[in-house]
């Protein structure tokens, strides 16, 4: 069963990691996809860029796809994404507000610019894009689904993440408030809270075999998460199977949060 048959999905931060998996799994479930990405400059020596690869993968699934570069920290980016989706596909049914950064740094000497940039991309960006998409959904008059990528870090502290964890708590809170504000228009707003998912964001942090073994050992399922593990939950929350789920936060962590050992 294709859970998003005939739907149009916008995903931010969609060229890599969790965002890429969301884009591909949404397409696999029948959605046409607009992918937002930023500064994809990995091409070289004949290789495709990350965004070229994910676009090709979606096209191979028989779905339509548009890629649009832009920094979600710029309020105009959300407006551009909506305009491009409507122009290409005629509507917007789902937003996966996923774009985020996580530059690890000790609290006492976090550069002010790192703090500002993390706040602007993770929280401000989620706000701008959500607002732009919600306005379009309201105008369309048939509801919609917004799923934001928060994090287990919204619920726990991190000595190297004092500039990051508040943004993910903010994304979670944003979805709660939007669930109330947008529910009357049939727009459902939820978040996913990934635990430790192996992506580019944490590759350096997990490069140590000792650190990797420690992190796996904390997860009751005995492994780190994969981007598709999160993407499948986003697809569910975006689908009609979750039509009465609004204002929820879904932990996708293999049991990490509840393991106190």
UniProtKB/TrEMBL annotation:
The keyword Iron does not apply. It catalyses: L-rhamnofuranose + NADP(+) = L-rhamnono-1,4-lactone + NADPH + H(+); L-rhamnofuranose + NAD(+) = L-rhamnono-1,4-lactone + NADH + H(+). Its EC number is 1.1.1.378. It comes from the Bacteria. Signal peptide: none annotated. Belongs to the short-chain dehydrogenases/reductases (SDR) family. This is L-rhamnose 1-dehydrogenase (NAD(P)(+)).
């Amino acid at each position: 069963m294709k859970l998003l048959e005939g739907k149009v999905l916008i995903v931010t931060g969609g060229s890599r990691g969790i965002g890429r998996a969301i884009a591909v799994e949404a397409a696999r479930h029948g959605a046409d996809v607009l992918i937002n990405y930023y500064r994809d400059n990995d091409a070289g020596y004949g290789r495709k860029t990350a965004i070229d690869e994910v676009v090709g993968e979606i096209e191979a699934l028989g779905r339509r796809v548009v890629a649009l570069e832009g920094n979600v920290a710029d309020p105009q980016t959300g407006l551009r994404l909506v305009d491009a989706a409507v122009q290409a596909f005629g509507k917007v049914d789902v937003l996966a507000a996923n774009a985020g950064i996580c530059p690890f740094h000790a609290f006492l000497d976090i550069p002010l610019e790192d703090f500002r940039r993390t706040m602007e991309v993770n929280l401000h960006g989620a706000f701008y894009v959500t607002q732009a998409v919600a306005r379009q959904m309201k105008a369309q008059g048939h509801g919609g689904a917004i799923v934001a990528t928060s994090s287990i870090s919204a619920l726990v502290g991190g000595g190297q993440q004092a500039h990051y964890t508040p943004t993910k708590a903010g994304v979670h809170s944003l979805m709660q408030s939007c669930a109330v504000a947008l529910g009357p228009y049939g727009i459902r707003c939820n978040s996913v809270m990934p635990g430790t998912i192996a992506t580019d964001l944490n590759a350096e942090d997990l490069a140590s075999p000792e650190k990797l073994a420690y992190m796996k050992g904390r997860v009751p399922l005995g492994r780190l998460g994969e981007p598709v593990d999160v993407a499948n939950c986003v697809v569910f929350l975006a689908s009609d199977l979750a039509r009465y789920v609004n204002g929820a936060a879904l932990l996708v962590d293999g049991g990490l949060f509840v393991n106190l050992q």
